[in-house]
Amino acid sequence: QSALTQPASVSGSPGQSITISCTGTSSDVGGYNYVSWYQQHPGKAPKLMIYEVSNRPSGVSYRFSGSKSGNTASLTISGLQAEDEADYYCSSFTSTSSWVFGGGTKLTVL
Amino acid sequence: QLQLQESGPGLVKPSETLSLTCTVSGGPISSSSYYWGWIRQPPGKGLEWIGSIYYSGSTYYNPSLKSRVTISVDTSKNQFSLKLSSVTAADTAVYYCARQRDVNLDFDYWGQGTLVTVSS
Q1: Which positions in chain A touch B46 (Cβ < 8 Å)?
Q2: Is B62 in contact with A98 (Cβ distance < 8 A)?
Q3: Are the CB atoms for B89 and B24 separated by under 8 Å?
């Protein structure tokens, strides 16, 4: 199984909005609404930010939102803050009863 | 609050078997509705799913690693384990254990991770 495709890096200024894309196939992202997003700060474990495409776990800021169109899922962060600077990974359940991650996107807050 | 903690050797020789254990506290590992998974991250690289075990004992493995991976559960110790055989330097990574919700198919709780280096 191939990793989902994410941009290597994105950047934005405080207060702005950014969107990170996650492209897969009809066997993963396009075939299921089981896309999740994770935030990872350096040296730390990943943290669940979005599940089932667009749902936020308790405690995650409303500034984080998710969506999906076809084989591409997206994570949008609005009102960028310095603490949002981190690596972000998408993940999807697949047709072979497995999970696949994206390659990761480094978010820089300018 | 659920907590997961990985443990095991930090250094493994090439061709040997990597063995790690994840100890779960704050809830029984035998609870229905959860998978228990292993994910790794080579230094400076992205996340890779290794495999998962359902509370029923069913296992699911990454096809690229399937021939070398075994995941098992010990409910008496509230632990689950990973064995990866015939390791090479390419298996050097931080290894994470995580809980997966079977309704949402996500990874909602993670261990802190443990670095395993493959070197002679």
Answers
A1: 3, 89, 101-104
A2: yes
A3: no
Q: Which tokens belong to B81?
A: 């384990």
- Determine the 3-state secondary structure of A83 from DSSP: helix
CB contact under 8 A, A1 and B63: yes
Q: Spell out the per-residue pLDDT of chain B, length 120, in tens.
A: 999 999 999 999 999 999 999 999 999 998 888 999 999 999 999 999 999 999 888 999 999 999 999 999 999 999 999 999 999 999 999 999 999 998 899 999 999 999 999 999
Note the maximum CA span of chain A: 41
Q: What CA dihedral angle connects A63, B49, A25 and A68, to 10 degrees?
A: -10
Full DSSP string of B59-117:
EEE-TTTGGGEEEEEETTTTEEEEEE-S--GGG-EEEEEEEEETTTTEEEEE---EEEE
Three-state DSSP state, A55: strand
Q: Which two tokens stand for residue A68?
A: 């999906």
Taking CA atoms, A57 is separated from A61, A65, B57, B104, B117, in Å, by 9, 11, 27, 11, 34
